Amino acid sequence: MPVKIVRDDITKMEVDAIVNAANNALTGGGGVDGAIHRAAGPELLAECRTLGGCETGSAKRTGAYRLPCKYVIHTVGPVWRGGYYGERELLESCYRTSLELALEAECESIAFPLISSGVYGYPKAQALQVAMETVSRFLLEHDIMVYIVIFDRSSYQISEKLFADITAYIDQRYVDEHTDGSVEQARRHRIARESMESGPLSAEYVPFAAAAAPPPLSVAHTLEETLRHLDAGFSQTLLRLIDQSGMSDAQCYKKANIDRKLFSKIRSNPNYRPSKPTVLAFAVALELSLEETEALLRRAGFALSHASKFDIIVEYFIMQSCYDVFTINEALFAFDQPLLGG
Ligand code: APR
Fold first, then answer.
1. Whose CA is nearest to atom 34 of ligand 1?
2. Using 50, 70 and 90 to split pLDDT, how confident is the model at 319?
3. What is the mean pLDDT of residues 249-274?
4. Sign, CA torsion 257/262/263/266
5. Among 133, 142, 138, 58, which residue's Cα sits nearest to residue 97?
6. Distances (CA, A) of 118 to 21, 114, 125, 204
7. In the sheet where 71-75 sits, what is the strand order?
8. Phi-psi region at 199: left, alpha or beta (left = phi > 0; alpha = psi -120 to 50)
9. Stretch 44-53: mean pLDDT, rounded?
């Protein structure tokens, strides 16, 4: 199952378990700990007092009382001391042990705050990276829906350099709706020309066209004949690409951050119409080039546009050959854009 970054108050999350960024004594505190105890009511503190504390990097589970979830998993993140005292390993352990406790209680969904990134001073960009990497690694082997909950804008940061690079990339390419820039105009002409030359499902992309390439439209005499010669649709194309990649279906949909159920729908329905973020998630998982990505998008009736920040950001990562959906999603989230997969 996928991991999603959401902007919310964790005490409002309707999931099976929420995670608390607690202290060793488990006696409540400020930040997210205070918010969770306030929302759950005094019974939560009473149960916590019976647990005998919790070691840094470990986790303990309690009931959730007045919260809308079933369990609270209390974990104790490391205090940041420059990164020289095993902080990263301890933080990874917080995520892992919390996930294990959730699975043990048969939870199907769990929400984490950015542990250690407040009072405990873990640099936020790094805290987010540890969260995303540890969770996505865990999800390769296990099935649980994970939410990383970001409370406020200041608690969320990708690295300054990445943010600046993407901003510059967007600035160079973004065409707002009032500006008909010459680059965009040329690009649209190119797309229009291509679709006139090769029909809606271009055969220019070699792997896609490898199965019987359709004859030029001029030789198709009837509509029926034309339809018969259309290339494979998105679903069939995707399955063929997965086979060619050497990945298993599960490896591919997990890398794409796509839910297993959604993948089953795509697989069983040759006419499935995916959303654009779904197509792009698969393009990234399959490590397609930009040209190949555009070809796959066309199979689903989409195109990349420089009038969309979402498209430009995804394009940025593909151009850098960065095919990590989770890193791309961190950046999309930072720019308030929809996320890939899900
Ligand atoms: N929902 C989601 N996230 C929240 C919420 C909320 N309601 N409130 C705060 N946060 C975010 C903060 O913005 C921060 O990014 O949780 C993250 C973790 O911050 P802290 O709560 O300060 O946790 P941490 O850095 O792990 O420090 C733990 O703080 O309150 C004490 O008892 C706690 O001593 C422990 C220490």
1. 23
2. very high
3. 92
4. negative
5. 58
6. 9, 8, 12, 51
7. 3-7, 145-150, 109-112, 17-21, 71-75, 59-63
8. left
9. 97
Which two structure tokens, joined as six digits, stand for 72? 């609270």
Q: Is residue 33 annotated as part of the catalytic site, yes or no? A: yes
pLDDT of residue 106: 97
CA 122 to centroid of ligand 1, rounded, Å: 11
Burial of 154 from C-beta contacts in 10 A (0-12 / 13-18 / 19+): exposed
Ligand 1 neighbour 336 (Cβ under 6 A): no
Of 34-38, 174-178, 268-272, 338-342, give the lowest mean pLDDT range.
Answer: 174-178
Record the pTM: 0.77
CA–CA separation, 92 and 107 (whole Å): 20
Tokens of 252: 């591919």
- For a mutational test of ligand 1's pocket, the pick from 11, 32, 81, i.e. the residue with the most ligand atoms closer than 8 A to its C-beta, is 32
- Tracing tokens 């308030």 back to the chain, one arrives at 336
Residue 115 and residue 75 in contact, taking contact as beta carbons nearer than 8 Å = yes
What are the tens digits of pLDDT across the range 222-252? 555 544 445 678 999 999 999 999 999 999 9
DSSP calls for 225-284: HHHHTPPP-HHHHHHHHHHHHT--HHHHHHHTT--HHHHHHHHH-TT----HHHHHHHHH
Burial class (CB in 10 A: 0-12, 13-18, 19+), 150: buried
How far, in Å, CA of 276 to CA of 173, rounded? Answer: 20
Which among 289, 278, 285, 275 is positioned nearest to 326, based on CA atoms?
285
CA 77 to each of CA 91, 128, 142: distance values in angstroms, whole numbers, following the listed order: 6, 13, 23
Rg over CA atoms, the chain: 23
The torsion angles phi and psi of 112, rounded to 5 degrees, stand at -110, 140
